[in-house]
Amino acid sequence: MVAYLSGGLLYGREVDRPAWLETRRKKGSVREAAEREEKIVELMKRKWSVRRIAGELGEKYGRVQYVVRKWKGREKAEGRGRKAEGRGAMMGSRKGR
């Protein structure tokens, strides 16, 4: 920004920050995001619609949709893991032949 405003004559590291400028993070912590995701999953298990969850929690529709897809993918993967365990036991018995 400084280089742009000065026409390339100065760089940001060459200029002190103004006293009025606050430095703060735009994003929340990972813990806060995980807590929000848990709330979304809890409401999905109660059969709430994505739109209703987004409105209730003040989240964006797309963010809620993303969390729901991620949650459904985990559920699906866990189901595959249980099936694979059963097949693995059968495959193991053939190895001795």
SSE inventory with pairings:
Layout: H1 2-5, H2 30-45, H3 50-57, H4 61-94
Describe this entry's structure for a reader.
With 97 residues, this protein is mainly alpha-helical. The protein is built from four helices and no strands. It has a domain at 29-86. It has helices at residues 2-5, 30-45, 50-57, 61-94.
Brief digest:
The protein has a domain at 29-86. Helices cover 64% and strands 0% of the residues.
Count of individual helical segments: 4
Biggest pleated-sheet summary: none
The end-to-end distance, rounded to whole angstroms, is 71 Å
User: Fraction of residues in helices?
Assistant: 55-70%
Descriptive keywords:
64% helix, 97 residues, mainly alpha, single chain
